[in-house]
Design brief:
Blueprint (H helix, E strand, L loop, with lengths): L1 H30 L3 H29 L1 H21 L3 H29 L3 H32 L4 H4 L1 H15 L13 H24 L3 H23 L13 H30 L5 H6 L2 H16 L9 H16 L6 H8 L4
Helix pairs in contact: 1-2, 1-4, 1-5, 1-7, 1-10, 2-3, 2-4, 2-8, 3-4, 3-7, 4-5, 5-12, 8-9
Length: 354
């Protein structure tokens, strides 16, 4: 029961990273954003969340992870309702920013609570594996759930589905979850938190501008500002008595390789997802649901991969599943180049007459 309460927000946070993939045509028709506005509508949630994850994880250690979970649940639910009611692109962007802040509180607090609930290594590994399936699988489930909702309701329904889950979490979590925080009473590194977010957002702005405007003065300025904030953040973490993250971890080969591999996989998955669903709808004429069901094998593969990684031996090479896992996606991408999605396949998967 307690694990299930923590898996639901992890699933929804990840779903909202990808649910726009399948809803892009409907939202673009309704709100008529420019190309730049649409990029911000799509990406700002993930980038705000990425920029705040370390900060919120550290904050939860200080103020209590359950308390942070409840704060994030309220914000996530309110932002979801605002998204559903957005009438113009920049209201949509603002709501996605608030959703990103809420998501940045939910992801680290749920995982930290799970780790604190299971002191036994074997049970903790199983629980973390379930969290991994929920979080990574949510990015695959997002287009599927979104496709189903768009088949029957208006585009705002893909965000309103978050609201009852967050309300349920606000009621149930204080009853079934114990508070958890770091046993060490240390000060929160506010300066480090202030430096982290602009470093991410400035670099993202530079990447967005270079695609539309080239390497002009504003693009170079944004890139330099992002690098300066990033360098200041690293310097702060190396000198702080109680840093948000131990920079020395990146000198551990297994840790550095795992972070790099996950970053590459996340970027490639997000890029392919953003293009694939729109391509299947606009070029091949598939409906939102038909396009979404083509992701079902990916969802099954995600669950299988997480289960296999969790069962892999922890010695002598803890990172041994990673090289094998990283070798499979290129094979799938190569195979997808020779395949053509068909409406008949989508309708058959969806249970509609073909």
């Amino acid at each position: 029961m307690r694990v299930a309460v923590l898996l639901l927000p992890a699933l929804l946070v990840s779903m909202d990273l990808s649910i726009l993939f399948v809803a892009a045509p409907a939202i673009s028709t309704a709100l008529t954003p420019t190309g730049t506005e649409w990029l911000w509508m799509m990406d700002v949630y993930g980038f705000v969340m990425a920029g705040l994850l370390i900060t919120m994880g550290s904050l939860g250690d200080r103020i209590g992870r359950r308390r942070l979970l409840l704060i994030g649940s309220a914000l996530f639910g309110a932002a979801s309702a605002l998204l559903a009611l957005a009438a113009d692109p920049w209201t949509f962007v603002l709501a996605r920013v608030l959703l990103g802040i809420g998501g940045a509180t939910l992801a680290p607090s749920t995982l930290a609570l799970i780790r604190a609930m299971y002191p036994d290594e074997r049970r903790r590994r199983a629980a973390v594996g379930a969290w991994t399936v929920a979080f990574t699988g949510g990015s695959v489930a997002g287009p599927i759930v979104g496709g189903f909702l768009l088949e029957h309701f208006w585009w705002g329904s893909i965000f309103l589905v978050n609201v009852p889950v967050m309300l349920l979490l606000l009621v149930v979590a204080p009853i079934v979850l114990d508070e958890s925080r770091s046993p060490e009473r240390v000060r929160f590194d506010l300066l480090g938190a202030v430096l982290a977010l602009p470093a991410v957002l400035a670099l993202v702005l530079a990447l967005k501008r270079v695609t539309g405007h080239g390497a002009d003065a504003a693009t170079v300025a944004a890139a330099l500002a992002g690098l300066a904030f990033a360098a200041a953040f690293v310097l702060r973490q190396r000198r702080a008595a109680h840093p948000l993250i131990d920079i020395g971890l990146f000198r551990v080969p297994a840790f550095g390789a795992a972070v790099t591999a996950n970053t590459v996989v996340s970027w490639s998955t997000a890029g392919m997802g953003a293009l694939a669903f729109t391509f299947m709808q606009t070029v091949h004429g598939l409906s939102a649901l038909e396009a979404a069901v083509h992701a079902l094998p990916t969802f099954a593969g995600t669950a299988a991969g997480a289960a296999l990684a969790g069962r892999s031996p922890t010695a002598p090479v803890p990172s041994s599943p990673s090289p094998r896992g990283c070798s499979w996606p290129p094979s799938g991408s190569a195979a997808s180049r020779s395949s053509t999605p068909t409406p008949r396949c989508g309708r058959s998967w969806a249970g509609s007459p073909s």
